[in-house]
Structure formats: structure tokens, C-alpha cells
Amino acid sequence: MDIDDVARDLYAVLPADFVSTRTASAKDARAAGDAALARRIAALRKPTKAAWATNLLVRRERDRVDTLLALGVELRDAQDRLDAGELRAAASRRRALVADLVGDARRLAEQAGEPLGDPGADAVARTLNAALTDARAAAALETGLLVDSLTSTGFEPIDLDGLVAVPEAVGDVVGRPRLRLVKSPEPTSRQKAKKAEKAEKAEPEKPTSRQKAKKAEKAEKAEKAEPEKAAKQGRAKKAEKAKAEKAKAEKAKAEKAKKEAGAALRAARERLSSARDAVSAAQQRAAAATDAVDDLERRRAALRDELEGIDAALTRGQREAKEALRANAAAEREEARARRALDDLS
């Protein structure tokens, strides 16, 4: 038994059963002598409702999720190549696929007896969109071990700290071969001819001299306004840069605080786990002491019964001794009377 196996089983249960299942798994690991594994299990966080529904979707609709992941690869490649045409072509597929998968997640959650509301559905959609734009988010989604929903800006790599139950599982997924969508076949010669004919029909008429003059006048005005426009753009760019730097500094500060809080939380969980182990050991010692006390009480009761028996025997002996003394005295008196009677006869 290792943390991966335990986590995959644990994050497959209903939210209502998570804590009890985690406790039982940690207890089993502790009973097996693996205290380190028991502590890791005890530290596993309960997933949010949206994360649970997303994990359920990954397990139940894996083929459709793989389609999403493959589309994400294509989108990121197109983004790297700045291929606007391919990005536009994929946009509608992206929206439709995400909407369908969110619907699947809601259906599966409903069937499991854990209906997913609109906020939860929105969180599932954010996670799916993050997986489309960010490779690490895609890898995290693929593990089926999400603790919380994912959000990606599309500009910076997503920070997965605290979002995946077993962080090393993401590394395993990232190392797999990337998925690819099968592209449509190249158009035939006839299709190309039709496309060219359509393009010719749609070709606009050549501009007149007047239109050319107006266009030149417009270009001249634009050229004169260019310095002012450039200055405005420069100021705007400078302000935007300052804003971005400020946001970056604030984000760095927030991330630092988040990491510190995470470290403190992990330390607290470890202390809690150690305290639980200590309590368990103390309870065992207390149980042993209770058994010893019970044994002493039994021995004490037996001795008390034995003492009472001795007291009763002593009382009987004393009573019998008194009776014997009385009988002896009576016998002596009888003997004395007999002697006197004998003396009288003599």
C-alpha cells in the first residue's frame, strides 16, 4: 500500500464518506507499522464539491477528457506559433467541449446523490479551461486527485501548490507522451477550385480615384496624429508596466504568505498526527492499567472472601472451645458429687 493507491481510492468516494474513509485508511497504515504513510494519509485534504465532481468526470468520462486534453495541446501549439486562424477555428470546439463536459459533471454528480449547483459548475468549467491553456493544469486534471478547482490566467504557469492531493502524481503525468488531435485531411483539387472561385466572387471592387484621395487624406491625418498617439501609448504603457510590477510584487508577497501558511499548516498537521499517536499510545497504556486494576480488585475480593472464611472458622472454634469448657466444668462438678457420694457411703 502506498500513498498513490490510497489517494486514488480515497478521492473516488463521496464527499460525505471522505473523512471516515481517510481515518480508516490512516488507521490501517498505522496498524501495518507504516507511521509515515499514516501521517500522509491523515494530512490529505477533503476536496471541494467542484473538485470532487471534476475528479469523478475524469474517472467516468476519460475518453472525453482525453479529447479535451488533446485539444489543449493543439491550442497551446497554435498559441506558440501565433496562428490566429487555428485559434479561431478551435474556439468554438473549445466552448462546446467544455460546456458538454460540465454537463456531464453535473449529470454524474446528480446520479451520485451530490447535485452540483451553478457555482460548482462554474468552478468545473474554470478547471477545464485551465487545462486547455496550461500544460501543468492539464496534468493535474488528468491525475483525478484535485483538492480544489484550477484557475489559469493564460499568461503565467499555474501554481499547483495545495491543489493536488499527491503532488508527485503531476510529475508522472507530465512525463507521458503528449496527446494530439487528428487534423482534417487536405482538401481535394475540386474543393480548392471551388474555394478559389468563391474567393474571386467575393473579391471587392477596385477603389476609385476619389476613394484613393480620401484614403490618402485619412492616412495623412493619421500620420500627423501619430506622435501624440505614440506619446499616449508610451504613457499608457508606462502606467501599465507600473501596474503590472505592482501586481507582480503583490502576487509575490501573496505567494510567499501562501507558502508560509502552507508550511505552517503542514507542520500543524504533523504535530496533530504526532499528538494523535501519543493519545493512542496513552489510551493503550490506560487500558492496560485498567486491566491491572481490575485484576487487583479481583484478587482483593478473593482475599476478602478468604479472610471472611477464616473469621467464621475462628468464631466457630471459639464457640466450640467455650462449649467444651462448659462441658468440662460440668463433668468436674459431676465427678465431685460422685466422690462426695462415695465418701458418704464409706
Characteristic key phrases:
346 residues, 79% helix, mainly alpha
Architecture overview:
79% of the residues lie in helices and 0% in strands. By secondary structure, it is mainly alpha-helical. It has a domain at 47-186. Helix 6 runs antiparallel to helix 7 (118-133). The protein is rod-shaped and about 190 Å long. Residues 194-268 have a biased composition (Basic and acidic residues). Residues 181-268, 318-346 are annotated as: Disordered. This is Colicin import membrane protein.
Give the SSE layout.
Blueprint (H helix, E strand, L loop, with lengths): L2 H8 L7 H14 L3 H9 L5 H12 L1 H20 L2 H28 L6 H16 L1 H9 L23 H8 L14 H13 L7 H137 L1
Helix pairs in contact: 2-3, 4-6, 4-7, 5-6, 5-7, 6-7, 7-8, 8-9
Organism: Mumia xiangluensis
Protein name: Colicin import membrane protein
Number of strands: 0
Mean pLDDT level: 80
**Range of helix content:** over 70%
The total of helices stands at 11
The general outline is rod-shaped
Return the structural class: mainly alpha
Radius of gyration: 45 Å
User: Strand count, sense and closure of the main sheet?
Assistant: none
| Percentage of residues in strands | under 5%
Q: How far apart lie the N and C ends?
A: 114 Å
> Runs with pLDDT <50, length 5+?
175-188
Oligomer: single chain
Order of helices and strands: HHHHHHHHHHH
Protein name: Colicin import membrane protein
